[in-house]
Amino acid sequence: MNNRMIRCLAAPAAALSIAAAGTLAGAGAAAAHVSATAPTLTQGGYGVVTLVVPNESETAATTTLTVTLPNLKSARPEVMSGWRSTVTKDPSTEEVTSITWSALPGTPGVPVGEFAQFRISGGPFPEEDSIALPATQTYGDGEEVSWSEPMGADGAEPDHPAPVLTLPVADGDGGHHGTGSASDETTAEAADSSTDDTARWLGGIGLIVGALGAVFGVAALTRAGRAAKSSGTGESGSDDA
């Protein structure tokens, strides 16, 4: 194979490699955006929302994150080492409208090439199939990225999509604050009470049976003693004769 033929074969291979690299880079860029998850949250309910925040900068750490909330009655950020959180409320309604996390001085924030998770516990969330939680990510060099763009009408993802939560309808088993309901607690208490009553009855029966056994034992020993005494008396009279 001469050099000219080798160059002819190498050129298409190089082009394919470049195209593949470009495709992978594009996929990585599209996937690396702020997202939100809440597996246990339902419409009109309370729950924990997790914001996954990757650092897309090649030179600076993420130092601030702000997420906009749908006017929640209650919302509390999880304690995070190295971060300070600020809850913003509507003055007229006292509903929570946003939460901001800021990296404390001397801490790394979200370093280049890494990600962090920011959690919120709150509610009640709107009774809608899905809600957007627009977020603003700020880097240490001053760059600011707004994750607030809606999905395209054709389903295409924009460059900076807003985090979206899908909210299923509640199953109707009870409240949204916990996994159990009042009826479940009542049933559990009744079962515990029944178990305690049964144990007490069995314990009482055991004591009665034990007492009767002791009485019968004493009576049997008394009868045995009398029989032995009578037998001894009879044998003694027979020898004297």
TrEMBL record:
Pfam families: DUF1775 (PF07987)
Keyword Protease: no
Domain YncI copper-binding stretches: 33-167
Coiled coil feature spans: none
Compositional bias of kind Low complexity: 181-193
This protein's UniProt keywords: Membrane, Signal, Transmembrane, Transmembrane helix
UniProt entry tagged with the keyword Signal: yes
Signal sequence segment: 1-31
Chain intervals for the UniProt region annotation (Disordered): 147-195
Highest taxon in the source lineage: Bacteria
Transmembrane segments: 201-221
Record protein name field: DUF1775 domain-containing protein
Organism this protein belongs to: Gordonia tangerina
Taxonomic lineage: Bacteria, Bacillati, Actinomycetota, Actinomycetes, Mycobacteriales
